[in-house]
Design a protein that fits this description.
Elements (H helix, E strand, L loop, with lengths): L1 H12 L13 H9 L2 H24 L22 H13 L4 H10 L2 H5 L3 H5 L5 H35 L4 E2 L5 E2 L1 H18 L1 H13 L3 H19 L30 H26 L6
Antiparallel strand pairs: 1-2
Length: 295
Amino acid sequence: MSAVREVEPQEAQEVAAGYQASRTLPLRVEALRQWRRRRTLVMGGVLAALPFIMIIAFAVGGSQGGGGGRDGRITLIDTATASGANFAATCLFVSAGFLLVVPVALFCGDTVASEASWSSLRYLLASPVPRARLLWSKLVVALGFSLAAMVLLPVVALAAGTAAYGWGPLKLPTGGELAAGDTLPRLALVVAFIFVSQLVTAGLAFWLSTRTDAPLGAVGGAVGLTIVGNVLDAVTALGSWREFLPAHWQFAWADALQPHLEWGGMVKGTAVSVSYALVLFALAFRGFGRKDIVS
């Protein structure tokens, strides 16, 4: 028995010749698997269709012509038809609070839980794919698809809006305008900040995906907790405590649509979102490393 005990640790460390953990489950393989999923195509179709739906809505309902709302203030909605850039900014404004949360929660929450629900997770790890490598590949691909979804919306909106309303400077709700040459970098900054602010939702969805075998539970849980954060941010009685909520900074990207770029709100929002996301991703990796995936 003693001889057996001495051999087992050595055998456990032996690996096949040429085996490298970093080469298991390549990102391109995982990306192709996720690309062929029906929910990926449906989500892309919904985001691509939104700008055209809004163009039809403006055509049917008409625009206020920049006159502002009942209180006389001009918002992004009022300037939506001023140019293609204004229309793209308006699409981001109406979708950043909820619609863009859905693809992030879907791609990050469905990725591991779906494998568990199909009983294919154990076979992936038996390939052999190390658990950390499996999670890393799935997380990178999920974040990549989430970013692609956020880029798809403004790109389609910019193209459709330019065709419908023409190309020109970005008219600012606060007065003045941004030159057409400065519009694209500012919109790119807006998309980048929205993506960073959604890392909290990504972290929640990914962590829940490693804790449950129900994909809808992970996706719905992430969306639900994000909504709870938005509700808490609306409670003004919390005072300065709201600054620790990621939802408090989700529209800080509006500072990028000013004559003089303001970084304060976006820097604070980035710090809060990244901090929460790193903790959630760490919990996902730690919990999945100890999870029993056989039962």
